[in-house]
Structures are given as structure tokens and as C-alpha cells.
Amino acid sequence: SQQGEEDPQALSIQEGENATMNCSYKTSINNLQWYRQNSGRGLVHLILIRSNEREKHSGRLRVTLDTSKKSSSLLITASRAADTASYFCATNAGGTSYGKLTFGQGTILTVHP
Amino acid sequence: DTGVSQDPRHKITKRGQNVTFRCDPISEHNRLYWYRQTLGQGPEFLTYFQNEAQLEKSRLLSDRFSAERPKGSFSTLEIQRTEQGDSAMYLCASDLTMGDKYEQYFGPGTRLTVT
Fold first, then answer.
1. Is the dihedral of CA A83, A33, B61, B68 positive or negative?
2. HSE-up of B68 (CA within 13 Å, CB side)?
3. Which residues of A touch B (CB under 8 A)?
4. Cβ distance of B44 and A48 shorter than 8 Å
5. Residue A73, class by beta-carbon neighbours within 10 Å (0-12 exposed, 13-18 middle, 19+ buried)?
């Protein structure tokens, strides 16, 4: 079953604008990851944030995590047409779940040139 | 790095037939995962191997589904007596148990269509 919801389901922006996607989850986590999926490259790992971290940066990506609200956000700054893809958050519960990931439903991002 | 490969990339089968998919993980990765993804949804976990041991199976994996990973290398996922509801993209992923590294590398998937 899906871990939670992603918001918005679809986002359309112009090149150069920032894109923010939100993810909510239901159970305790060890870490939360964001993946990108497009038809050309399949699912690709973008960034991981651990449960004891609140914010993480990687290039044009910024991820925040609020474990009290069981929510995360992904910010893509200065978007490019090549960022057009579906973005999924995925949670890992750790412990006996090992690396098993529970994905959200995804946000479809369209960046217009 | 040759990446995770899956074969076939597409499979069309008639309801009631058996199908088998293969996944070759990145060679040094000891963990291998199978997920299923339907249109408009995120991937859903099916099963997981560490080396040759199958350690967890989802409730989604009915007794028509079986997965193996002989010798801890490639893995196969077999679906017996396919149903139209089995139509989906079947994704394989692998990673390496090393400290707190959790990034999974996904293959391109096998798209199954049951007619």
C-alpha cells in the first residue's frame, strides 16, 4: 500500500521558476528519499534525508523533513525543461524492513521552456 | 557500472499464461528488490532478497507469484495463471548493505500486458 500522499498531483511551471512538492507519510521512518522518474531514464535516486535531519541540500535540490508532522518537501530551484518528470517520495522504516521503500503517488512536474 | 538490467522490457501475454521476468543487479550489490507500478501510482514493494535469501514478501504477492535469486546473483519473478489485474510495470532494484547507504538503483522495468 502507498505510504501517503503527495501534493500537488501535477505542477506546471516556466523554466527558471522554483518548484515545490510536498509529501506526507503515515508511519515512523528511518529515512525519506526522493526519486525522479521519466521515460528516458527510469527511476533515479535524487536525495536522502535521515529522520534526525531537518534540511538537506544537493545542487538545485533542497529537502526538508518534519517528523512531528510526518511530512517532507522537495524544492527544485531555477527549474529547467529537463526537470520535467514524475517525482516520488519514498520512506524507509529501517529495522527489519531493511531497505524496503514505500512510495507516495508522485507529483508530475512539467517545466515549460 | 553497467546498471541494473531487466529482461524482457515488454511482455504481452494472454490471461492464464505463465510469465517469467529476469533481473540482473549491479554486480557487487547484495540486496535485490522487486516492485510493481501501475499507471499513475508510485511503485509498490513486492519482495526483497539479501544475497540468495528471500527475507520479506508483501501481502500483494499472491501465491501465483514466486521469486528466486539463485546464488545471490540474478533474480527471476514468475507469475502463474496471469490475470488482467497483473498488467503493470515490474521494477527491479538493487543496493549494497554498507553502513547507512540506502540509495537503490532501479532497472528500466518490464511492462506486462495481460490480454
1. positive
2. 6
3. 1-2, 30-31, 33, 35, 42-45, 48, 50, 88, 90, 92, 97-106
4. no
5. middle
Other CB atoms closer than 10 Å to residue A22's CB: what's the count?
16
Go through B40-76 and write b for each residue having 16 or more CB atoms within 10 A of its CB, e for each that does not: ebbbbbbbbbbeeeeebebeebeeebebebeebebbe
Distance from CA of A63 to the nearest CA of B (A): 16
Could you report the per-residue pLDDT of A58-109, keeping only the tens digit for each?
999 999 999 999 999 999 999 999 999 999 999 988 776 667 899 999 999 9
pLDDT tens, residue by residue, B16-55: 999 999 999 999 899 999 999 999 899 999 999 999 999 8
